[in-house]
Design a protein that fits this description.
binds flavin-adenine dinucleotide; 409 residues; 11 helices; 6-stranded mixed β-sheet; FAD/NAD(P)-binding domain; 8-stranded mixed β-sheet; alpha/beta
Length: 409
């Protein structure tokens, strides 16, 4: 009698949204998972995150969405407004419509809550699957990366062997550097400032359960509810402003810097901005800044796979946040990878290559659309007039991209 072949043994570098998702998807397909995350405890910083139906559908299938029931919000509408006049440029219903049209909700959630839900779900899977998460362990090298073998060098001196290495270690990916050595991501010249305000501290008129986007020349603002509707998450993105420590998401900045970056605002937006504490007793404004980087859209499957090493999420295709799909693509990648690897250890390199073939064009399209959206959001002069007219005429179609949300894996 033949011994059955073992399922692939997957080594994941990075325990952010993409790495944890890959761990869950692969474990649910019966693969052996070893995940290495440099931080201790495995945690997450940052602001809110929007999750379209293309990704809530996957989170639901994994059993993660119910874990977010208390914290996730389902906004009523997506509304685009002009920053200077406050005029509504276009709107599209979200709640109800997303479920009806795409079979899954559109939700907004704090990144920390999403991260915690993924982490606890992976932990629960470890009871029945062969999964181990090594926190406080950085990946420092790739060993024997070839068609036959692959392994990781860890900062504790250990070398671990597996059938596939997944580089889910984010924008400044060590795995990408080691296997592709193709340079650093590009600074976009855009800076994101984020703050959150207790909903009760906002003027009543601003407590909407909507995703609102305010568009102005060289800047825009997005805000939406998180934490079960108790908190409003606010992100300001501006061009041509002072840059900050490139790897940190926690650079402190003065309120005045953010207000100056934004320029002229209508009364309603000024009120929202004024609701962020100017300074606490410690002098901290409540605003945090981080620089935005991206890479050109991926050109082929070779950008995602090399022998037994694959990339996913920001390590593979970092993008501007103007389509709110970076984490979503990491989660889709994770699902795609698990489909490709499900089964036994035979033909792993071919199956990793299939993963790359099925993912690269979609990720490239999302990267390119995000870049284009940035230009459209920040338009001035005649381009702005054209944008406003188009939003008026075709707002629903532009703000509800079926190719993106209706994608089924
Ligand atoms: C302003 C802004 C708003 C955004 N809004 C949205 C949104 O609304 N919706 C959306 O879908 N996306 C959004 N994104 C994008 C999203 O945040 C990212 O695309 C997503 O977090 C990428 O996940 P990741 O797991 O690939 O990388 P990361 O989240 O960066 O995780 C990488 C992990 O790897 C670990 N790591 C790094 N190096 C090593 C190493 N050598 N060894 C071990 N571990 C290592 C890190 O500690 C980290 O935990 C936004 C981004 C920005 C900047």
């Amino acid at each position: 009698m033949q011994t059955p072949l073992l399922s692939p043994h997957v080594l994941i570098a990075g325990g952010g949204i993409g790495g944890l998702s890959a761990g869950i998807a692969c474990a649910q397909k019966g693969l052996t998972v070893r995940l290495y995350e440099r931080s201790t405890p495995v945690g997450d910083v940052g602001a809110g995150i929007q999750l379209g139906p293309n990704v809530t559908r996957i989170l639901d299938a994994w059993g993660v969405l119910p874990r977010l029931a208390q914290q996730a919000c389902e906004p009523e509408r997506l509304v685009a407004r002009a920053m200077a006049s406050g005029r509504v440029l276009g709107e599209v219903p979200l709640r109800g419509r997303a479920r009806e049209k795409y079979g899954a909700p559109y939700v907004t959630v704090h990144r920390g809550d999403l991260h915690a839900a993924l982490f606890s779900h992976l932990g629960a899977l470890a009871d029945s699957a062969d999964v181990f998460v090594h926190a406080g362990t950085a990946v420092t090298g790739l060993v024997q990366a070839s068609t036959d073998d692959v392994g990781l060098q860890l900062d504790n001196g250990q070398i671990v062997q597996g059938d596939a290495v997944v580089g889910a270690d984010g924008l400044w990916s060590a795995v990408r550097g080691l296997a592709w050595n193709d340079g650093s991501p590009t600074a976009t010249g855009h800076v994101a400032y984020r703050a959150s305000v207790a909903m009760g501290d906002l003027p009543k008129a601003l407590r909407a359960m909507d995703v609102t986007v305010w568009l102005g020349p060289r800047a825009h603002v997005v805000h939406y509810p998180i934490r079960g509707g108790q908190t409003m998450n606010i992100v300001v993105i501006a061009e041509g402003v002072p840059v900050v420590d490139r790897e940190s998401w926690e650079n402190r900045v003065r309120s005045q810097t953010v207000h100056e970056a934004l320029g002229t605002c209508c009364a309603a937006l000024s009120e929202l901005m004024a609701a962020v504490p100017m300074a606490s007793a410690s002098g901290d404004s409540g605003w945090r800044a981080w620089q935005l980087f991206d890479r050109a859209p991926v050109q082929s499957g070779d950008a995602l796979v090399r022998d037994r090493v694959v990339l996913l999420g920001d390590a593979a295709h970092p993008m501007r946040p103007y389509l709110a799909q970076g984490a979503a693509m990491a989660i889709e990648d994770a699902q795609g990878l698990s489909y490709a690897l499900a089964g036994d250890v035979s033909g792993v390199t071919q199956r990793l290559s299939n993963y790359a073939d099925t993912r690269w064009q979609r990720c490239a399209r999302v990267q390119a659309t995000a870049r284009r959206n940035g230009d459209v959001f920040h338009a001035s002069g005649l381009t702005r007039l054209g944008r406003d007219a188009a939003m008026w005429a075709m707002g629903r179609r532009l703000m509800d991209p079926a190719w993106l949300y209706g994608y089924a894996m």
